[in-house]
Amino acid sequence: MQIAKKNNTKTTIDKIKQFLNGLPPLTWVVVALFIIFGLISPEFYLVDNLVNMVRRGSTLWILATMATLLLISGGLDLSLGAVLTFSGVVMAIMLRAGYGPLISSLAGILSGTLIGALNGLLVSTLGIPAFIVTLGTMNVFAGLAVAMSETSAIFIDNFTMKFIGAGAIAGIPVPVWVSIIIFVLSYVIFHHTSFGRYIVAIGENKLGAHLSGVNTGFYTFLVFAYASTMAGIAGVVLASRIQSADPRVGVGWEFDAVAASIMGGTLRGSGKSGITTTIVGVLLIVILRNGLNIIQVPVEWRSAVVGVFLLAGIIIDISIRRRES
Amino acid sequence: MAEKNSVKKIGKIKLSSQAMNSLPRLMILLLLSLVLTFLSPYFLTKLNLINVVAMSSIPAIFALGEMLVVLTGNIDLSLGAIFSLGGVVVAALMKYLLVPVPIAILAGMAAGALMGVINGVLMAKVKLPSFIGSYALRVAITGFANAILQGYIVYDFPPAFRFIGVQRLFGIPVPIYFAAAVFFVIWVVLYRTKLGRKIYAVGANPEAARLSGIKNDRVIMTVYIIAGSMAALAGILQTSRINQAHAFLGDPTLLPGIAAVVIGGTSMFGGVGGAFGTIIGALIMNVIQNGLNLLGAPSVWQQTIVGGIILFAVVIDQSVRQATAKRIN
Description:
- The complex is a heterodimer of chains A (325) and B (329).
- Helices cover 77% and strands 2% of the residues of chain A.
- Chain A is mainly α and 325 residues long.
- In chain A, 52% of the residues are buried.
- Chain B has a single domain, classed as ABC transporter involved in vitamin B12 uptake, BtuC.
- Helices cover 77% and strands 2% of the residues of chain B.
- Chain B has helices at 2-39, 46-71, 79-96, 101-125, 130-148, 159-166, 174-192, 194-204, 206-211, 216-242, 254-263, 275-294, 302-328; strands at 154-155, 168-169, 172-173, 244-245.
- Chain B starts with a helix and ends with a helix.
- The chains are: A mainly alpha (325), B mainly alpha (329).
């Protein structure tokens, strides 16, 4: 009886050990940062600040999950930040023109789908490297957003959009619900559909996937379209949350998304853990940016610190991956 | 003797194929100029033409460096930030530490070369994908440049420094001499040295290059260092020209720079392209921008137009390549 109990506890400990080993190595950096920032400045732990981080993180989580899907498929999307901006601006312009919140939101989301479709089409049919295609579309649509909004933020004054941005259901902010739904949807698609399996196959060996009968062009197209659609939703929610469509709001998000995804361990292993562990990278970036602000690191140093941190994070992750293999 | 002859022959073939590659681009440049001559009476004036060439010379220096990196099958997205850093370092040394102008300029270029070393280590040793490694470094460099100047814009430099960006020598603006010198050096490196052959070999087929005894790491490291110092030089000239330095000076140069490389016929897959095409690419980009200004296009549309030009250029380029590949098969 006693022996059995002992065995039982041992397996639980083993299970915990296994779980901890499965976490990306940067998880410990996240925990350390969370403690250190709090020790330096207790304000960091205030509920307002934590909620603030969760709100900000919810947008990044969507983009980073999309970056993960794209990286697993062997692609990359530098236009995700521009989609974030553009969809918000389209939504705000439609609202201003007198359309209802539903139509306006759909138009914003659809504009994201179209950008993704354009990316996917150019990458899959012509085989142009994804980063140059998306660098092009990023600038086309970031520029269009600035031009269409006449360089200034468009205010959003609509009850439904305010609820989406600032409301809560069951105590959880609506933007967080949206992120959770998108995460679950992406998780199910990735782990339980042939689409998900094909993405992995294409990312690991495109020629092999093609030879074994996978329509690689179509699925490459689909992953770009899906990613931009979800980024479009994120853009509409973000604009609702800050109650205005700022034509420069998305600048730099594409990099945070890719960095979060890599630091979450996407490039490590066969991409199995990528979607779930991306949140570690998201937490790292959100905590870092918020913490530097709270402990009052001078503004002009912040971006240098963040840049060095992210670069170090990516290098650490890739070095560990190489040692493991 | 025979060997020498064959080397000469290869050189000739390479030169003529390069000319063939550049000919359609030269035609596009002339066609654009012709259209603009009809659309605007100001385009074909001596003043405007010298202005266009002078304005192209700084982006050309930038693009020539980027071209070398692209030839090896990599990309450097941090060059815009290095452009800013070059100007910021020179400005800080001259204004805060009162360092003599020539030493400040060399230090600025050395800072660019140092960033090239970091890029080289990231891509050649750590083996990061180049668009990720250089993009990450870009964030850090911009941050440092901003920190050096404490977020301020520094302006009003000594006349000795303004000379390299603004003055004329024998009626020709000084930046044009710099661009010509950089073009000449890079042309010699590409077509008259072993390093040039290695750059093409690494870009065309890295595995074959490695098996034939080329140290790919060193080649990649070298192109990043050259590109870094060229971007810094371009940034220093720009700082001198507009008489101010700040951390975001180079941000708008990256995209037109890459566009010039792509329009100039350098393949994003590496191994194909060259210096002459890149110069034409830089001229085309500036003729377009000059035309937009002369025709009074609102500046808010420029980013969209440049992005569109990149997409258009890579689509045409890739379609032509696919069509030729089919014809050969």
